[in-house]
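#struct-pred

JT: dropping the chains for the assembly here, can someone run the whole complex?
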Amino acid sequence: MLLVMKFGGTSVADIERIRNSAQHVKREVDAGNRVAVAVSAMAGHTNQLVSWTREAFPEYDPREYDAVVSSGEQITAGLMAIILQSMGIPARSWQGWQIPLVTDASHGVARIDRIDGQAMLESVNGGEVAVVAGFQGVSPGNRITTLGRGGSDTTAVALAAALNADRCDIYTDVDGVYTTDPRIVPGARRLPRISYEEMLEMASLGAKVLQTRSVELAMARGVRVQVRSSFDNPDVCEPARAGLAEKRGTLVCDETDMLEHHVVSGIAYAKDEAKIMVLKIEDKPGVAASIFMPLADANINVDMIVQNLSEDGRTTDLTFTVAAGELPRALQVLRDRQDDIRFSELRGDTDVVKVSVIGVGMRSHAGVAAKMFHALAEKQINIQAISTSEIKISVLVSAAHTEAAVRTLHSLFGLDQS
Amino acid sequence: MLLVMKFGGTSVADIERIRNSAQHVKREVDAGNRVAVAVSAMAGHTNQLVSWTREAFPEYDPREYDAVVSSGEQITAGLMAIILQSMGIPARSWQGWQIPLVTDASHGVARIDRIDGQAMLESVNGGEVAVVAGFQGVSPGNRITTLGRGGSDTTAVALAAALNADRCDIYTDVDGVYTTDPRIVPGARRLPRISYEEMLEMASLGAKVLQTRSVELAMARGVRVQVRSSFDNPDVCEPARAGLAEKRGTLVCDETDMLEHHVVSGIAYAKDEAKIMVLKIEDKPGVAASIFMPLADANINVDMIVQNLSEDGRTTDLTFTVAAGELPRALQVLRDRQDDIRFSELRGDTDVVKVSVIGVGMRSHAGVAAKMFHALAEKQINIQAISTSEIKISVLVSAAHTEAAVRTLHSLFGLDQS
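RK: done, full complex below.
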């Protein structure tokens, strides 16, 4: 098999951790697999580099920011190659510009345009482990770019696609994707498989296992991604083989590769939401536009929207959510438009949480929403707003109800460990 | 003028020090000079990177060592560019591979083959400060190379040659080259000028201001090098102008540009010498070769050599020096050849110091050596070995006499501050 193995910041936090991660690589090489490795910077290192650029100048040039912060992955790629060599495994490091991994020029959040992996593939086919500095690429103008925080996941998936790898193993500090946060529900179960679509919802809703873009890319290119723990003892893990069974971690794969079909796969929650209430606005065509157009112009994303008719029948209240960090700016935008909107009152509230039920099985099972709302009502948990997609239902509740809501739904949909 | 300005590790040790160094750049830009900057890594940073590579594997691959340790200069180049921009000065960073600064493939001690400075020169001529990561280059095989410790001096001089700069200013933590070490002779004077040849002798003899290779390169390419302190207040320094007078630092230049001609320019000393005595070997042709050939084969450089006829007229003693770090290996090589050499005794001694008197004026002034030996004898300082070149005389003395010897010679040749 041709494998891409990615090690995150905690898995390369110091020389001993890199050595342990290298043992996972050795296991796969010894089993006859060809391997390309993608590495993050040592845990905490990128934060140090970012804080230096901010201290230098808060309005730093993103091209220079990229030159500075990409150095962390350069270091770990070299150290990983040295350690693999010390174990008798031929290896060499590859910087983004050496591959080259060509991105657009959106410094700090660059998108991969193409990977000319020919030289690297020849090296890998010749028995050398390619150790690629994650997170970084090179622009058409020959400047170093970075892919955004967590970008090494995207590097790994893009490499797997370019090399036509059999699988992309993401080694991290958790041993897979869980039905929900085990800190809230001790009986949460590891999911042996999850579909790309479900993983996307889990990732963007606060289960911070994989960068969202890496999942999008895996889905688009059909890359099978295995999330697993680098803290497992490398010697007792079985090497990768063709076949479907996965004893460790979580395989992120196409829906058709799913073994079991639950209606609901997981419960996610996101605390970084804020609720805005615009009270007693005139109930006439165009009033919603007068609120949402200026927010869109200010690049503020609105998520859940609820409109209530008020008692007098002539005015209405509008409730919606934005990212908590955008709340002050959103309120300011609306206050500036008070002449247009003519609300009687404007309220902001960050004491809310979005709880979501996710599962591809919902497509073919009616009644999930009704069951969900009924269970929350029984627990006296008031629903402040609702949004839905094909494979998820999200509700906004008071932050105080986070744990009760997650536990109730986790039990309700049969996710608790038996 | 087109200036190259180089800032060493202590001059970029943290964001505040980089900001202060950037003020020196601003002064030159404000005066209408075009500027390229070369930077070292933050003080201590390279040592950290080197120790990581050693911890990873003591017999590390030098190609990966270079990928790891070159990252320090990448960081400071980006930060310096950001800080210059924060002062309103257009600036961009250049990594070795971006210029490109092409070296041979002798990783860890690479030599510069060529600098294709066209893109950089256009940028500088367009009013942008080029901030170059020192110490690093790229091999013909597209791997990162480094130039050896202190290599950023060589980067700066090579840039100055490639850009045809009017001068190369080396900013460091001392304010120039002194007649001797001020810690030993408080009355040591800053030399306003020193010739390349003298600087080479000073550099290789222990005055650690400039990397030796950078001086060789400056001499070969006729680059005028100004050594000066980055700790000077940037605001009170005068900007660079055409003309000869230099109020700050030391100008390293061609002999013909020297303003005043002392017979002796400086007194250097080197503590990292070791003396080897090979006693009572047969006094016949070939015996010296039986000692020095095996040492040469083992890549051990021999410096001073003294041969004495012993009392019996048939045997002789040989004394010579090697670098202190090579002493155990050199003794072992000779012991292994005892069957050939047949010495009665072999002694090693690191309790010695080499004191040197340096000056281009010695070429035209006889009697310097006689004067030197006489003065040391008067102070009861025994000379254990002697070596000379056109512009220097070195003597080996007991380490206990270091200060006395340096002070005596400094006064003898009129170097004390008046």
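JT: nice. Chain A has two domains: 2-256, 261-418. Chain A touches chain B through 38 residues (CB under 8 Å).
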